[in-house]
Amino acid sequence: MTASELVNLTIDGIPVQAPKGTGLVEAAAAAGIEIPVFCYEPRLGPPVGACRMCLCEVKPGPPKPQAACTLTVAEGMEVSTALTSPLAMDAQNSTLEFLLLNHPLDCPVCDKGGECPLQDLTFRFGPGVTRMAFDKRTYEKPIPISPTIALDRERCILCYRCTRFSESVAEDGQLVARNRGAMSVIATFEDEPYRAPFSGNVIELCPVGALTSTQYRFEARPWEIQNVPSVCTLCPVGCNIAATTREGKVKRILSRNHPEVDQGWLCDKGRFAFTHLYARDRVRDPLRKVGLRRFEELAWDDALDEVERLARAARGRVLLALSGSETVEIASSLAALVRRGLGSDAVVLPEVTTTALDAFRLPLSAIRDAELVVVVGDDAVADRAPVVDLWLRAARRRGAEIVTVGAAGSVQAAPGSAAAAVRSELGDRVRGSERAILIWSGAGGQGGAVLAQLAHELGAWGAFYLPATPNGRAVVEAWRAAGDGEPARLDEIGLLLVSGEEAAADPAVRRLGERAQSVVAISMFADPLRGWADLVLPGTSYLERDGTSVNLEGRRQRVRRAVIPPAPDELAWIAKLGERFGLGLNPYPVGLPTGEQAPLPPRPEATEPPPAPPAPTQPTQHGGPLRLVRASALFTGPAVERVPELQFQRPAAEVELAPYDAEIRGIATGDAVRVESNGTSVSLRARINAKLLQGVVRIPQEHAAGLEPAVEVVSSPAEPGGVGR
After folding, report:
1. Residues 200 and 141 reside in one and the same domain
2. What is the DSSP letter of 207?
3. To 10 degrees, what angle do helices 86-99 and 117-124 make?
4. What pTM does this model have?
5. If we measure between CA atoms, which residue out of 419, 402, 420, 400 comes closest to residue 410?
6. Are 317 and 492 in contact (CB under 8 A)?
7. Containing domain of residue 517, as a range?
8. Residue 78: how many CB atoms within 10 A of its CB?
9. Same-domain check for residues 499 and 562
10. What is the domain-level CATH number for residue 486?
11. Radius of gyration of the chain (CA)
12. Alpha carbon distance 24, 12 (integer Å)
């Protein structure tokens, strides 16, 4: 940076240099001088100067104190904070006195106590006693603005952090300020529940105890807890988190700002789904099938004996099903056990991966700086990789053009034809842009290969493939590294080894289990395995593991154990099982990343990617069978199913139809319909989507079990939700 790009000023008599355009609060912080704030939060956009806690004396300027958060540095500026200016000190003391006029004195029972900026600044500024003798204003409390968030209005200082997040970051518009002046209160729009994928961020943004987590409320105090830095692996973004623990249990999840990955934001799944650790059907000891749907507990030595017996009886006819949620270390150990110990190359992999995309690698934060972003696929980005959606919104606010290509996109494309639509409709615009980014969101298992081909052909600045699983790419690479050759195919399955509750919930894996002579599953939960698994071994959560995970950028991050699992770690008993087959597996993770914030690997040299797979056949139209698009949804999966507070966020049992397809079938929004294919019938509610391509229907993945790609939709008097054959 050149000298002409710097300005000189003084803060409390200390000379400071800062780049042009730097906010005064930031410049002071860089110089080691604190200007106290409540409403100021750079991630929320331009400052609003609402709380007035940052009042300082500024020369040259008007004789009254100025809100420092609204000012940028200027040449020759002289700033005096409350440390050196009696005028600023009096202004800040008065500000706090006004903020505390109606604030309740409930610090001993407030969940923010000990972590509260208002509490901290009150000790340092403001009067020691009140001059007011009137009763303080009170409200009904707490107000449940959603099943996950409680609002105590009398604690609110109207900093507007929460409403600014809702309006300017998440852009859901559901949290608003009602009334005016002294009667202003925070409320949800039309008093509806705050139902949005990022609503929980307002809890951390709130500088007082006005917005609190219903899960954490009255659960712990700051001096009783430990915060363990880790990474969330409930989706492929890999947001940095801190797990708050008390007496060996996880009590809450906080964000941990990684500016290139998540900018300190978390989706509600990552924030609130941790209570799945304490689910009713959590597997704590090995379980052996007895009867049709019953399990009995088994000692660990007996369980390993049983696994060994079943594996030897399979005589190499072993099939491993990986879920993509394993750490690199667990996936490597399982792959080595099956490939080198049990002599099988048969596997069900969670992803179809390609390394060709590495040549277009960028940090997720680069999306914010793009000129053009093309999102290809039929899954909403917020459902597949939620924080990526926030980066897209930030890019749009900075002037980027966002184009969606898919069955319901701004550029409509039938399933399988999205790549062709990008070439024909957007190819020239991508080539002509210096900072064009392509994002592939859920359009088929070969999406990574197609995206690499598109990015290479069109000269994109960057490309992101949004995987279906949190660590699928690393799991696939771990399988390949454990042996030679491509995955084998088994006509007869002697033993099916299922890793992870996500794989256990997959209907395709369940069908393989029906063909197998025996099934051994590694899972946290027992209920989905009743009736078809012969042996269940306890699994662990990402909050109970040490290891590594690779996110959608290709960034290798450290997953840290926050609490001790109720059963031995998978690596320990896999190593013991390996010894029985002559393998020396290391039960302890080695070579783990050490930094709190993992760096992004550099781009490799670009090479010609392999050819993309052929597109599938087009959907039929004009009254014939319709092409089914399975839409992934964020609030689904084994973890979410076991969190009562998140059930209101789960997708409705609906089928979306284009207006023409609905009209010729005599179907209107809200009608009960049956979706039929190949002898399977699912009862749902219809919803007309004017943006949906004719000949296509879209159903959430969890409501589309058993349906084939070609379906028919007919009116039905039946209630939604039932599934029959």
Report:
1. yes
2. S
3. 130
4. 0.95
5. 402
6. yes
7. 287-351+472-579
8. 14
9. yes
10. 3.40.50.740
11. 28
12. 13
